[in-house]
Amino acid sequence: MGANRRFPLVFTLASLVALGALLTRPALAADSTVDPVVPVLLSLSIVLGAAKVAGWLSTRLGQPAVLGELIAGIVVGNLWIVGFYDLDWMRDDPTLSVLAELGIIVLLFEVGLESTVDRMRRVGASAFLVALIGVITPFALGWAAGAWLLPGSSPYVHAFLGAVLTATSVGITARVLKDLDATRSIEAQIILGAAVIDDVLGLVILAVVSGVIIAADQGGQGISLVEIAGISAKALGFLGASMLLGLLLSRRLFRIAARVRIRGILLTSALIFCFLFSYLAALADLAPVVGAFAAGLLLEPSHFDRFDERREHSLESLLHPISTFLVPVFFVLTGLRVDLRTLGEPGVLGLAAVLTAAAWIGKQACSLGILQRGVDRLTVGLGMVPRGEVGLIFANIGATMTIGGERVITPATYAAVVIMVIATTLVTPPALQWSLGRKRSPTPVT
Amino acid sequence: MGANRRFPLVFTLASLVALGALLTRPALAADSTVDPVVPVLLSLSIVLGAAKVAGWLSTRLGQPAVLGELIAGIVVGNLWIVGFYDLDWMRDDPTLSVLAELGIIVLLFEVGLESTVDRMRRVGASAFLVALIGVITPFALGWAAGAWLLPGSSPYVHAFLGAVLTATSVGITARVLKDLDATRSIEAQIILGAAVIDDVLGLVILAVVSGVIIAADQGGQGISLVEIAGISAKALGFLGASMLLGLLLSRRLFRIAARVRIRGILLTSALIFCFLFSYLAALADLAPVVGAFAAGLLLEPSHFDRFDERREHSLESLLHPISTFLVPVFFVLTGLRVDLRTLGEPGVLGLAAVLTAAAWIGKQACSLGILQRGVDRLTVGLGMVPRGEVGLIFANIGATMTIGGERVITPATYAAVVIMVIATTLVTPPALQWSLGRKRSPTPVT
């Protein structure tokens, strides 16, 4: 591309930076009497602008847009390198964080809409095995990595490191699948089903390992089988009961909603359905996105036949502007929370490299659980790799626990976990795009 | 309608209440470790559900949907009457409040898009006179009302009461005009232009009155003419400079943005433009909605000719789902913040009635400022009536100031102001709908 074509980009970037530098200073002087929407207006502008410019550059380089969004976030979040600290508040802004979560909830709802309970059931056994192997292998490998590189620490610490590696963060994979219009492929169905089951299994493992560590530290009884059964029953009960109720009631509920003849009722009913399922999932200690995905799975296009608005717009086209607005907020904020300072801590990089390898191999192994023939096992394995924020949540819990006066997750271990999360998250979009591109036509679910 | 037709509504309402009662209890037990999105998911479901059911009932009764949304908010916000306090946290939830503000910002941006700088300029003189009369008359009437009903208070208190009455809240009017598809009428243009100017004038009056009171109380110098000029210059400077810059640069900026060929760039560029203008307005101490309206005013459909997506969707159709999601949050939350307990305080109702009359007459007088012939003066006067949250912001400032040990705005006066705000806000939607309906075809701007 010629210099005159490059100009607008340089101009846009320069304007963004200049505007950012100019605008952010007064926000810092803002006291508590300032309308809370004011800093959000600025941060949304920066996040959306950075997402689009970086996403575009990323697609021009043949990479998925989400990779650009993540890197844009990392750049904005690490401007301390050039002595700029004025945007640091964005990292912990509670409102921005809620907007980001609403974004990923809407994305998983959209992805769920593109699938059906029936299609999911047909890959159920494979998804279950994929999830199970995808939890056991990284757990064992993480434990082994801990025992090898942290020989002085208690075995509980090694077990906890294994637990951290079990988590799967489905957001990145869902986004790449959606951008490539591959959510209806059998590989996508297996990945999404397995990610949901993984969330339940991860919850149980975390409860067991933390329970055992707290008991060992305080000399208590450990976690009882009854408690483990209770946690599992609560999570599985949510999934089972809500899917059953949803199957039985959703069509009727949407028929009732269709009688409310007012503008926007189709979109609003769908959003309420999505938000309530996400809320119920959170009550069962599952990730809200699991509920959003289940909500999308339950809804079929035929549910909306009676809506007047249906004639003008599909639900997907109504949701699209909302996800255009909110989804990039999630991915930029994910990047923004990456603190590159962790890279520099001594002894961290070795552990990080081993953990990343363990995370990678552990999830590749899970493709052995696929029962169907003709499924691209590499794609499924790659789709399960990203750990995202789920791994960090586990690590944060570990950081608050001690065993014999020693922190279960020390700052150095935490830094290694962060690097593992970055590595698995950043590599997945290009790897998945490449892997899906190899196979010209994704196998449909038969 | 027969009993079998009424059933779905009763069923929906009952389900909503039951679900609400069931779901809200666990949220209360939530500690700080709970993901902050969780309570937001619940409150959004309640707000959106209540908005649509009440909006539909309202339209069936021939009233604007926004009246139903306001009343739905008042009902949900005053469930203490039946001993239900579990939703009280929604009133002060910061995230819900930011979502509501983003809603009203998007609404004013949409309304601004339906107008042009040129059309606004043609009604400029009328809008200025309407704003000026609409500030002077309520100020005088409010002062007189204070002098009459609060004879024991200092004249400064009376003056402050006048200042409280000057504010115009454009949200309600904008919403009614948009729902009735009347934003392009000359009446709408005058109301919207006047509301923007009103915001500047209100800011100056508030600064002057508070400055004088603080000086009188602390024996200082009062506010100087230089300071008044500074405040006015800052606000007018923002409006003038941003409009000028916008006129000169917006076409070019959107041409550059159009070169970023990535999904969602049209909507995202428009949102960034809207958010940045709202932010700049806030920096000039103006309401963010003034900036959003100005941003919409500056953008013309021809700005978007080069966007690929333009071929599929207009910007308006892309914004519509976002406003369907967020706008009702604003109006329900406005209702939710109405505490009916204020109605019961002794001596309040008399002052409230007089203030409401003063607010009403004061804004009706402003239609005298219209220079064009054939304009429906009653509609313009009615459109300027609602005080909304702007009046409350003024009253809140007064509540923090004292003069000679006496609070400028006592709790009783504050309650009367709240009732005045409720009265002017609730009456406007039906009055405006009636007034616009009288004239079959709104006069276009010529």
UniProtKB/TrEMBL annotation, chains A, B:
Boundaries of every Cation/H+ exchanger transmembrane domain copy: 51-434
GO molecular function: antiporter activity
Protein keywords: Antiport, Ion transport, Membrane, Signal, Sodium, Sodium transport, Transmembrane, Transmembrane helix, Transport
Major place of residence: membrane
Compartment(s) where it occurs, according to its Swiss-Prot or TrEMBL record: Membrane
One protein family per Pfam: Na_H_Exchanger
Any Gene Ontology biological process: sodium ion transport
Recorded topology in the membrane: Multi-pass membrane protein
Superkingdom of the source species: Bacteria
Gene3D superfamilies: 1.20.1530.20
Segment forming the signal sequence: 1-29
InterPro entries to which the protein is assigned, alphabetical: Cation/H_exchanger_TM (IPR006153), Na+/solute_symporter_sf (IPR038770)
Transmembrane region(s): 39-58, 65-83, 95-113, 125-150, 156-177, 189-216, 228-249, 270-298, 318-336, 348-371, 412-432
Any one Gene Ontology cellular component term annotated for this protein: membrane
PANTHER family listed in its UniProt record: NAPA-TYPE SODIUM/HYDROGEN ANTIPORTER, SODIUM ION_PROTON EXCHANGER (EUROFUNG)
Designated name of the protein: Cation:proton antiporter
